[in-house]
């Protein structure tokens, strides 16, 4: 494989399994683990495109014959991104170090990282890891950690057809020439969303992209094309640790889960692909940038999720291949152990990606709605939360004078026809089956009497087993079909409390009643309508009747956008290095709830969509690729934009209001979320809800460079050595506090009486005169200077913001600053103050 020396093809994978099993037998009870080792020497991305003199800072001394580590060496590099010389050199350095440190001891190197970080992943004992950490050439040794995965109407809701697409030449050219790299569960290359034959116009692979397409039994030759331009998989760490399940996980780029196919099509799927699920059509799908190219770097799997060593390898390769954007719908299971918030291998690799000009977008995580639940925190990463759009599929069952709402992508009963309700518990072939507590779930048609069920609405229990995946809607539907039922009705078991159901596709008329209270109403009506023999107590007549309205037709009257309860919230979490960081997270919110997108033919992540070509999914995983696709539109229009400039364009133009003109609301509780909501704050939604059209004409941008981020890291107490280790740069330059980063937001964790903040804007539009307005957070005052300014195209303007506490407070409060141009451009800067301490001169 070009660039990364990895154990990846099938023969190599099985060889690793054999070696590891043999090794483990020989070393007895000694525990081994995978560690990610970072070297002090700079990675290739620091040298690309320049003639550099690089001093090998490897340690000197030691016994034995001289080797590449024994004394300082100088190397001059002048190469392209695809040049293999530096990769080979770095791999030799890694191998030489391992041989010298372990001197005959057993170890297994899995990856050599060279492009974004200089390091490697190795399987060793804790004692061996300690030996490595003591070498002067080694920057950090980190235990590998786990990673997890966190549309038809969305383009219309975001105004793309009449707005962003039309301004760029239509969907036919939207995102053309831009490559989006996806670190995810892979892709189904056979899906029409990724075909290149539908386009009438030439569709060349961008010249700047150099990735390859792996060929395996599951991903045969021809899987890639001019749309899907690259595909690789990374699983060496998982295989080495023995958690790769060959019976469930594809050792190829093929998507065995569905998640990766869904996210890729959301960002860049082809335009106008019919969405047909369970025999019903739900419109036509399109990605945000349907002309963009897709490169897949599979590092997550069905049976175990993912591991950081594999994810870093995927990110490193994506950057070397030349992707323009990296989309990460993944987050750590927890903060990496023993590492400060920002200093972990994944975030530091992504920092180098930003240096290489790659815009990085990541899902915020699905751990909301509690504060400090954010799972993506570094300022160089664009973090996206999830909001609802205005489309809902409403379904209901009518019981005469009672109507109960529910969910289900299902047809209604014919022309409102009324049918008899029959509970599965009252249609048993064998009365002894009544003792089976699960028989009411309708999973086994042989246990039910077809003569009783036929032509009626079958009532089934939705128990905790459905939540756990032990029972399925799909199997219950098959039971209903086998018994010739007219439809199916699921009532919620009282033990399933506050479970949020996604709409589920059904071929038959059907409905799921998600509320236990509403289910009680249905059961009371049903039981009270039964006629029984007075002597035997046997049912002689089923008296309850109902009709189902059907949930195939979408309703667009829902108040939206709205921040979903599961979307992770800011501010940044505390760690041992610093208190709350002065950084606004999430950066933005985008549609993430009930998103239709492509589904893998082998996707098993949702059993209800098994075998379907499309699936409706929810999560911040679905929100992030919306932004990745929209970033491609911005990158196409402004090819010289830095990653921070792209993020600024998205942030300053975001909307603070829902479609009805009211404030965007945020759900505050998992239980009854629509009954527990209040206006969203910046820690719920960042700068607001993405405005795709306005982002293509932001007027002003806030820009940041790689060096600015390094200065910020240097400003964290005690971080100088860590910064040097990861970046190769010393902290001799003036350090920058987070509050002074030129972000399109202002966040102050602890305001001690007063603070002065500066921001610099650059005009990328025509000459324009701006006026400045603001609203101060509660308990503070704000003044911005100047209050008016003229800025020519390409020129900059420094804004000075004076913030003063007016009262003591320990709770967060929020305000905003608005820059209003006379040519129509508006930039909004959210202001968040987490805590305020007003100095009291009379106190002791």
TrEMBL record:
Domain Subtilisin-like protease fibronectin type-III as annotated: residue spans: 740-832
Inhibitor I9 domain span: 34-149
GO molecular function: serine-type endopeptidase activity
Family indicated by similarity: Belongs to the peptidase S8 family.
Every Peptidase S8/S53 domain range: 175-660
Gene Ontology cellular-component terms listed: extracellular region
Gene3D superfamilies: 2.60.40.2310, 3.50.30.30, Peptidase S8 propeptide/proteinase inhibitor I9 (3.30.70.80), Peptidase S8/S53 domain (3.40.50.200)
Residues in the signal sequence: 1-24
Residue positions of the active site: 184 (charge relay system), 259 (charge relay system), 621 (charge relay system)
Predominant subcellular localization, coarse grouping: secreted
Pfam families per record: fn3_6 (PF17766), Inhibitor_I9 (PF05922), Peptidase_S8 (PF00082)
Membrane-crossing residue ranges in chain numbering: none
Compartmental location: Secreted
Organism whose genome encodes this protein: Escallonia rubra
Record's keyword terms, sorted: Glycoprotein, Hydrolase, Protease, Serine protease, Signal
Name of the protein this chain belongs to: Subtilisin-like protease SBT2.2
Superkingdom of origin: Eukaryota
BP GO annotations: proteolysis
């Amino acid at each position: 494989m070009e660039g990364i020396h990895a154990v990846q093809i099938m023969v190599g994978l099985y060889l690793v399994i054999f070696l590891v099993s043999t090794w483990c037998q020989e070393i007895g009870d000694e525990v081994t683990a995978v560690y990610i080792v970072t070297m002090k020497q700079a990675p290739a991305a620091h040298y690309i495109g320049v003639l550099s003199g690089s001093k090998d800072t490897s340690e000197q001394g030691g016994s034995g014959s001289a080797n590449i580590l024994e004394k300082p060496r100088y190397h001059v590099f002048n190469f392209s991104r695809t040049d293999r010389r530096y990769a080979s050199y770095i791999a030799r350095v890694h191998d030489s170090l391992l041989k010298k440190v372990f001197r005959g001891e057993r170890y297994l190197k899995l990856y050599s990282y060279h492009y974004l970080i200089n390091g490697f992943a190795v399987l060793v004992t804790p004692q061996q890891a300690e030996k490595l950490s003591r070498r002067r050439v080694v920057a950090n040794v980190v235990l590998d950690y786990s990673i997890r995965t966190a549309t038809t109407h969305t383009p219309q809701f975001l105004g793309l057809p009449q707005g962003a697409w039309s301004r760029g030449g239509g969907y036919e050219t939207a995102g053309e020439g831009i490559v989006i790299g996806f670190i995810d569960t892979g892709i189904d290359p056979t899906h029409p969303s990724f075909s290149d034959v539908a386009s009438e116009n030439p569709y060349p692979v961008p010249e700047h992209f150099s990735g390859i397409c792996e060929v395996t039994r599951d991903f045969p030759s021809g899987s890639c094309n001019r749309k899907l331009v690259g595909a690789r998989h990374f699983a060496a760490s998982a295989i080495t640790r023995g958690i790769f399940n060959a019976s469930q996980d594809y050792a190829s780029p093929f998507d065995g889960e569905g998640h990766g196919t869904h996210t890729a099509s959301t960002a860049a799927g082809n335009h106008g692909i019919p969405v047909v699920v369970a025999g019903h059509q739900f419109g036509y799908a399109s990605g945000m940038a349907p002309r963009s190219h897709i490169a897949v770097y599979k590092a997550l799997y069905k049976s175990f999720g993912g591991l950081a060593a594999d994810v870093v390898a995927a990110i490193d390769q994506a950057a070397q291949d030349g992707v323009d954007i990296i989309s990460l719908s993944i987050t750590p299971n927890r903060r990496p152990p023993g590492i400060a918030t920002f200093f972990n291998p994944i975030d530091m690799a992504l920092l180098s990606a930003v240096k290489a000009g790659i815009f990085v977008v990541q899902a915020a995580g699905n751990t909301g709605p509690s504060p400090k639940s954010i799972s993506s925190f570094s300022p160089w990463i664009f973090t996206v939360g999830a909001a609802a759009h205005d489309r809902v599929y409403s379904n209901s069952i009518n019981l005469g004078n009672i109507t109960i709402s529910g969910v289900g992508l299902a047809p209604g009963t014919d022309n409102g026809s009324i049918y008899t309700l029959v509970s599965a518990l009252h249609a048993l072939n064998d009365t002894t089956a009544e003792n089976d507590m699960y028989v009411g779930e309708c999973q086994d048609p042989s246990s039910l009497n077809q003569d009783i069920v036929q032509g009626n609405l079958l009532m089934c229990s939705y128990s905790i087993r459905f939540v756990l995946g032990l029972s399925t809607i799909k199997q219950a539907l098959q039971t209903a079909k086998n018994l010739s039922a007219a439809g199916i009705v699921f009532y919620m078991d009282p033990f399933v409390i506050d479970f949020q159901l996604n709409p589920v596709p059904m071929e038959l008329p059907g409905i799921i009643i998600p509320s236990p209270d509403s289910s009680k109403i249905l059961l009371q009506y049903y039981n009270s309508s039964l006629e029984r023999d007075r002597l035997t107590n046997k049912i002689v007549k089923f008296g309850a009747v109902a009709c189902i309205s059907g949930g195939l037709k979408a309703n667009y009257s829902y108040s939206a956008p709205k921040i979903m309860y599961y979307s992770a919230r800011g501010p940044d979490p505390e760690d041992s290095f610093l208190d709350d960081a002065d950084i606004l997270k999430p950066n933005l919110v985008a549609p993430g709830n009930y998103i239709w997108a492509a589904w893998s033919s082998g996707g098993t992540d949702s059993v209800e969509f098994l075998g379907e070509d499309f699936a409706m999914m929810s999560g911040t995983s679905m929100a992030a690729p919306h932004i990745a696709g929209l970033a491609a539109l911005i990158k196409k229009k402004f090819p010289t934009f830095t990653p921070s400039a792209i993020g600024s364009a998205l942030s300053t133009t975001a909307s603070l209001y829902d479609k009805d003109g009211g404030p965007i609301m945020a759900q505050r509780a998992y239980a009854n979320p629509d009954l527990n909501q209040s206006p969203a704050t910046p820690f719920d939604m960042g700068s607001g809800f993405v405005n795709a059209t306005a982002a293509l004409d932001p007027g002003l941008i806030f820009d940041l460079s790689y060096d600015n981020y390094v200065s910020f890291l240097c400003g964290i107490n005690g971080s100088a050595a860590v910064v040097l280790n990861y970046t190769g740069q010393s902290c001799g330059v003036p350090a920058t506090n987070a509050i002074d980063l030129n972000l399109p937001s202002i966040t102050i964790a602890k305001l001690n009486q007063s603070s002065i903040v500066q921001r610099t804007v650059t005009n990328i539009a025509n000459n324009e005169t701006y006026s400045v307005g603001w609203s101060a957070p509660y308990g503070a005052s704000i003044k911005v200077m100047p209050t008016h300014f003229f800025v020519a195209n390409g020129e900059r303007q420094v804004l000075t913001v004076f913030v003063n506490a007016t009262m003591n407070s320990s709770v967060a409060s929020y305000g905003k600053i608005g820059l209003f141009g006379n040519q129509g451009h508006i930039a909004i800067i959210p202001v968040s103050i987490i805590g305020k301490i007003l100095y009291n001169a009379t106190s002791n």
